[in-house]
Amino acid sequence: METVDKEQIVMELIVNGGDARSKAMHAIKLAKKGELQAAKDKIKEANEALNKAHNFQTRLIQGESAGDKVEISLLMIHAQDHLMNAITVLDLAQEMISMYEEFRK
User: Fold this and answer.
1) Is the pTM value of this prediction over 0.85?
2) Lowest-pLDDT choice from 24-28, 49-53, 61-65, 100-104
3) 78 an active-site residue?
């Protein structure tokens, strides 16, 4: 994998991870207002963005497994932080939406 490809992958991790996190936060706000179906739709969008980010991460891992060493840079660490935060926020958003749903019953 060329350096340019790696840099593009890292940027995709940041963009898609950030997008997933933002959509998950928006879902929480929708659920808080009682817009539960819209919140669930936003969670679906967040999952799609997270899957994109995860697929880019998988490409990096597969490349490294094949012997293509990945340089650990501050940008790479930042990208991984975005991905991990997106996963955490998405998990919490799904739980919060379930709670709001229960509260509305």
Assistant:
1) yes
2) 61-65
3) yes
